[in-house]
Amino acid sequence: MKLPVPVPADELRAVALATIRKAKFPMMATISGDQPRVRPVSPVRTRDFTISVASMRSSGKTAELEANPRVELCYMTDDHDQLRITGLAIPVTDRETRESIWSENPLLRAYLGSIDNPEFQLYAVEPERVRFMREWALDYQEVPLT
User: Fold this and answer.
1) Cα 107 to Cα 35, 73, 103, 113, 116, distances in angstroms
2) The domain containing residue 47 runs over which residues?
3) Measuring CA to CA, which residue among 142, 145, 132 is closest to residue 23?
4) Contacts 24+ apart (CB under 8 A), 34-38
5) In total, how many domains does the chain have?
6) Is the dihedral of CA 25, 27, 28, 33 positive or negative?
7) What is the tens place of the pLDDT at every residue in 90-142?
8) Rounded to whole angstroms, how far apart are CA atoms 59 and 19?
């Protein structure tokens, strides 16, 4: 089997962003004490490599993020290309941003009923490192953040 050729450096950022659009729903890794936890998440906003996710105040995910905001998101396309975003899940408290995301997401509105529902938690995963790998490449390429 022939290993895939790495993506040219000048195309890597665009390929990585396309991976986010293709895969849509990443897995999010958090930590609970000394136990890793992984779950699928549904981003409520994507701006380049900054991914916003909602949570419920009473969820395990929220407790884990409050204790340790370090996360990794992993997107995988149907072709098994992978994109990993490592960063910090920062609580979003800015009312204007919350209202904008709220207005763009009918599922949030239907499920929570009110933007002022105390269960509504919003996090922006601020990227520190982004890596991309084609299926069977066996090596990640570092993606420029800007």
Assistant:
1) 30, 21, 10, 10, 15
2) 9-136
3) 132
4) 37/61, 37/64
5) 1
6) positive
7) 999 999 999 999 999 999 999 999 999 999 999 999 999 999 999 888 899 99
8) 28
CATH of the domain at 110: 2.30.110.10
Whether residue 145 is contained in a domain is answered as no
Provide CB contacts within 8 A for 59, sequence distance 6+. Answer: 121
Does 47 reside within a domain? yes
Residue 143 lies in a domain: no
The tokens for 141 are 């390429």
Q: For residue range 41-97, list pLDDT tens digits in order.
A: 999 999 999 999 999 999 999 999 999 999 999 999 999 999 999 999 999 999 999
146 pLDDT higher than 90: no
The predicted pLDDT at position 5 comes to: 87
Q: If residue 125 lies in a helix (H) or strand (E), which one and from where to where?
A: strand 120-133
Whether residue 27 lies inside any domain: the answer is yes
58 Cβ partners below 8 Å, 6+ apart? Answer: 119
